[in-house]
Design goal:
heterodimer, A: 370 residues, mainly alpha, two-stranded antiparallel ribbon, 2 strands, 77% helix, B: 299 residues, alpha/beta, 2 domains, 6-stranded mixed sheet, 4-stranded antiparallel sheet
């Protein structure tokens, strides 16, 4: 057994250059990716019209929430049908804090929304850590259904069915002059909100990239894959599950804060079960556990329905028919993904890549015995 | 929650070559005393005791249903005994949880392989030593150099452990694509990477060929310079070859203990394995049957 050690060990790579070592740092890699997304986001926001800007801001909060959910479901293996309700916690927190004459700066509000949602997520997570599969789905489903009625019960604070109107923060001076410098246009409030969403997304992305590649991410996956072995390796199952749930809830809270400003309303009708379910479908379409997948899934969710409606209108369908087309196409897409690529877009791609590499390795070393 | 028990602070040399016996290593005994486990009315283990001496290979054998796996599960905290105590490092393990094991310097392999299918072999092995790295959540979230250093050290150790087992070429592969013996190697590496002082092997030879079993036997004997081994195994020839001490269980009771030679010739063991008819004396026959009768009556 010890004789073939020398042949099996791959030759040590030549000493990495300073550049390689820098790129090897999670910090640097994630910063580069996040900055790339920021630049692309600014370019997109500045090159498109106001309507697309609004769609893009929807994409930011959707993606933030999807990243949180893909970490929870994809990496840690816990399903949640209650993330819409967690977003509601963030949105209501934001709405309440903005509802004053001199609201606090947005970062403070966003942080408060994150903290509030994390606390709720902690309580839900403690319960969730003890449940599996359909029971967990059921419990989070109940949470998604029950939480909006809190708003109905405490009418005084949350204004019942009508909800809270959110006053969008006024763009500060420096932002107006920045936009003026970039595109020569006047910075509207909705443009400011779109930029806030983009910034939140970039920050959320940075942390998600780091965590996914770290020990923490590996431990989450270990718990997902093989509980018993993870436990023997010294991983506390309960604590890890609660940790994942809290992080995921924090993402939902941030998403809720952005959403409140984009939609300008925090009401029970906004945070229905449909929101929770579409988040989950977005994550599944994109590929569970993949951050790129979260982007793809959210983009499908945000852009597909209006696209289909437009195409249907162009095809001379009546307005009613055009409106019915988009859920139909969405359903078909979901069914097709489940049938043909149950791993989602990214899952299918990475599986193909893994197979190819394995095949190449086999052909490269045909005599290697196991 | 159990009180945090100080892990062995002694850093272990992570050189590549088979490490020489280190006399400075604290000699720890693992003791199970008077362990009794009842599942409802069924007595799975009845007052079972065993002692794993430092640097020894201790085998647990017995016919199917004798309680070997239950004993193993007690030893690693999966099953809480109704009575009895476990001692390790001269400390009693009260309220032992499975996730405390790694911190105590105890590792275990699972029946079958129990690898993480969604991770490469290297990541599988790295997970086995995860508790040893000290960087926390914040440095992981910010991707700080500190977390990176920890990860790199972990990765090197995992790679080293794999190549010690002649499995370095498996590192980037995923468990689902590996043949069974290779999966077992990765699983063993995952247990060894935390540099335990006690290794619990649960049927390590199951599914291995004759040659692979010999290899495994040699490996386990090499390990004794660094750790004690407690092994549950069906393959008699392997057990007889590598074990220093053997405890034989039947119907939840210890029917014999001693060296392989002593155990091999013990009439009770022969009776338990081969049936009473084979043993020569009539009186042994009835004695064995009686002892079985009482345990099953108690059940």
């Amino acid at each position: 057994m010890s004789t073939d050690i020398t042949t099996a060990v791959p030759a040590p790579p030549a000493g990495p250059s300073a550049m390689q070592r820098l790129l090897g740092l999670n910090l640097v890699r994630s910063l580069l990716v996040s900055l790339g997304v920021l630049v692309v986001g600014v370019l997109l926001l500045e090159s498109t019209d106001a309507y697309t800007n609004t769609q893009l801001s929807s994409l930011t909060y959707f993606t933030i929430a999807a990243i949180g959910l893909t970490a929870l479901t994809g990496l840690n293996g816990q399903i949640s049908l209650g993330h819409g309700a967690l977003m509601a916690v963030g949105a209501y927190t934001t709405a309440l804090m903005l509802d004053t004459d001199s609201p606090l700066p947005f970062p403070v509000i966003a942080l408060a929304a994150i903290v509030m949602t994390s606390l709720v997520g902690f309580v839900v997570g403690i319960g969730a850590a003890r449940l599996h599969g359909p029971y967990l789905a059921g419990a989070t489903l109940a949470f998604a259904v029950a939480l909006p009625s809190v708003a109905l019960y405490f009418k005084g604070t949350f204004n019942g069915e009508a909800g809270l109107t959110v006053i969008s923060p006024r763009p500060p001076e420096w932002f107006v002059s920045f936009i003026d410098a970039v595109s020569g246009e006047f910075a509207t409030s909705s443009k400011y909100v779109a930029y806030l969403g983009l910034f939140c997304l970039v920050i959320a992305l940075f942390f998600a990239l780091n965590l996914g590649r770290s020990k923490i991410g590996r431990h989450w996956r270990a718990v997902r894959d093989q509980e018993v072995a993870a436990e023997i390796a010294g991983i506390n199952l309960g604590r890890t599950r609660v940790q994942a749930f809290v992080i995921s809830a924090a993402y939902a809270g941030l998403a809720g804060a952005v959403m409140a400003m984009v939609v300008r309303l925090a009401a029970p009708t906004v945070f229905t079960l449909v929101l929770s379910l579409s988040l989950l479908t977005a994550v599944v379409i994109g590929g569970l556990g993949s951050i790129t997948g979260a982007f793809i899934g959210s983009a499908v969710l945000v852009f597909l329905p209006p696209l289909v409606t437009d195409l249907s209108t162009d095809a001379k369908l009546s307005d009613t028919q055009a409106a019915q087309m988009s859920p139909l196409i969405y359903g078909i897409v979901l069914v097709l993904v489940m049938l043909l690529a149950p791993g989602g877009v990214m899952g299918t791609l990475s599986m193909a890549w893994r197979r190819r590499r394995a095949r190449r390795q086999l052909t490269a070393t045909p005599t290697k015995k196991g | 929650m159990t009180p945090p028990i100080e892990p062995d602070p002694q850093p272990s040399p992570s050189g590549g070559e088979p490490r020489p016996h280190d006399p400075g290593r604290p000699a720890s005994r693992y003791l199970a005393q008077g362990v009794t486990v009842r599942f409802g009315g069924l007595v799975a283990l009845d007052d079972v005791s065993l002692a794993v001496e430092p640097g020894q290979v201790h085998g647990v054998i017995g016919p199917n249903g004798a309680g070997k796996t239950t004993l193993f599960n007690v030893c690693c905290g999966f099953v809480k005994p109704n009575a009895g105590s476990l001692t390790w490092d001269e400390r009693e393990l009260n309220n032992l949880h499975a996730h405390d094991l790694a911190g105590l310097g105890i590792a275990r392999t699972l029946q079958g392989v129990g690898l993480f299918p969604g991770m490469s072999a290297l990541e599988n092995v790295m997970t086995g030593a995860g508790v040893r790295s000290t960087s926390g959540f914040v440095s992981a979230a910010f991707g700080l150099p500190r977390a990176r250093r920890d990860e790199q050290a972990l990765q090197e150790r995992a790679m080293q452990t794999l190549s010690d087992l002649g499995a370095a070429h498996l590192a980037p592969r995923y468990p689902g694509m590996l043949p069974y013996p290779d999966q077992k190697k990765v699983a063993l590496a995952r247990a060894l990477v935390s540099e335990p002082r006690l290794l619990l092997l649960d049927e390590p030879a199951a599914g291995l060929s004759e040659g692979e079993m010999d290899e495994l036997g040699d490996l386990v004997q090499q390990l004794t310079s660094r750790m004690s081994v407690l092994i549950v195994e069906h393959h008699m020839d392997l057990v007889m070859r590598i074990c220093d001490q053997i405890t034989v269980l039947d119907f939840g009771q210890v029917i014999a203990r001693g060296t392989p030679a002593e155990v091999r010739d013990d009439p009770k063991v022969i009776a338990a394995y081969l049936g009473a008819e084979v043993s020569a004396g009539e009186e042994i026959d009835t004695a064995v049957l009686e002892s079985h009768g009482t345990t099953t009556k108690g059940a």
